Amino acid sequence: MICCRDIPFNEISIIKELWEKNREYHENISENFGNLYADLVFEERMNHFSSFDNEHLKITAAQESENNILGYAISTFEENEGCIHSLHVAENYRGSGIGKELMNSHIDWLKENGCKDISITVAVENLNTIEFYKRLGFKENTIEMRLM
């Protein structure tokens, strides 16, 4: 049985293996910017979230057992602006509803905390994920461009 549970920041390391798969996925799908993902380090990326207290940070793990994390989501908010920072579902569990359950949980949490503006950033080459977010009601807003 798959269950989703919120975890405190001090347990964030349980999503490390899946986060690494997310990093590798982005490195591999990016035609122009894969090198930006190659050097990302879990501990450095997660350190950003250490500045948020438990009321402003939500980390949820979807798991089959204590050692089998199938998906995760990380969100924060400040005032009335919410951000879903990261979502990933293990490849062989995509399409099972885990991503939708995680997203709905985080969207609901952000709305319950007064967020009127909820954003998520997605790589332009990640077409399946863009369509997934659109089905949840997200709309395209801006495109960041880089000259490297």
Morphology call: globular
Helix content: 25-40%
Strand count, sense and closure of the main sheet?
5 strands, mixed
- The average pLDDT value, as a whole number, equals 95
Structural class: alpha+beta
For the secondary structure, the number of strands is 5
Q: Report the radius of gyration as a whole number of Å.
A: 15 Å
Describe this structure in words.
The chain is α+β, with helices and mostly antiparallel strands. Helices cover about 35% and strands about 25% of the residues. The protein has a five-stranded mixed β-sheet with strand order 1-2-3-4-5, with helices on both faces. Helix 4 links the parallel strand 4 and strand 5 (about 115-120). It is globular.
Structure, briefly:
With 148 residues, the protein is an alpha+beta fold.
Please supply descriptive tags for the structure shown above:
148 residues; alpha+beta; 5-stranded mixed beta sheet; 25% strand
Question: What's the topology here?
Answer:
Layout (H helix, E strand, L loop, with lengths): L2 E4 L9 H14 L4 H5 L3 H6 L9 E9 L2 E11 L2 E9 L8 H15 L4 E4 L6 H9 L13
Parallel strand pairs: 4-5
Antiparallel strand pairs: 1-2, 2-3, 3-4
